[in-house]
Structures are given as structure tokens and as C-alpha cells.
């Protein structure tokens, strides 16, 4: 009985700790950028949009000095359409899916307005050897 209970709890913990699938396809991402590049290419809200990477491009946002987050611009609402989120006019904290009207947080990619239910696909950002940062999956 105890073994069964321990096994059941273990399985529950493994399942509950699994990453939520955004529905956005997995593609190879390995993009390097410098602080100078971020500063020169970011918009007035601090968003640096990169084309040609990920499924629908990358969105890079600086949380604080040396601390960046990166997401795929592909909306999680109907990801097969590969609709790229864009900066929302008048808002420094959300981006909008122009195809569905869904909104997402630039800080953590979380859904901010329906019909969004899943967060944007997040990529890892880490310091690169020789300076700058690397966005990888």
C-alpha cells in the first residue's frame, strides 16, 4: 500500500512539473546580440524584434541591466498561422496578436487578454563567451 502511494505521488509530481506546451513548433534557435545592438534596435517600449529566427521571429526585452528575456513572436492562439505578435500601441507591458487580438505580457509571455490561454514560447538568454548574449532553445 505504501509503495503504491509513493509511486502515485511521484508520478503526480512528475506530471505536474512538466512544461506547458505552447503549441508553437520547436525550431533551432541560436542568436547572439550585444547590449549596443539592443539599445540601437529596441523600440520606445524596450522591445527588440528580430526577424528570421524562431518560428515567427524573436522578441527580446531587458528586465534590468544584464537581464534579458526572449520569446518567439509566434502567437499561441492558432500557432499554425504563425501570426507574429507586435508591440501594442500605448502599452509598454503587453504585445498583441494582430490576427486574434490576444495580448501577452512582455515580461513573462503570460496571456494578458483572451483568446490567449497559453504563454508565448520562451527561449533561454545567457551571457555569451566574448561578450553579449545568446538566445537558445
From TrEMBL:
InterPro entries found in the cross-reference section: Rieske_2Fe-2S_sf (IPR036922)
Molecular function, one GO term: 2 iron, 2 sulfur cluster binding
PROSITE patterns per the UniProt record, alphabetical: PROKAR_LIPOPROTEIN
Gene3D superfamilies per the UniProt record, alphabetical: Rieske [2Fe-2S] iron-sulphur domain
Superkingdom classification of source: Bacteria
Protein's recorded name: Rieske domain-containing protein
Biological source species: Pararcticibacter amylolyticus
Organism lineage string: Bacteria, Pseudomonadati, Bacteroidota, Sphingobacteriia, Sphingobacteriales
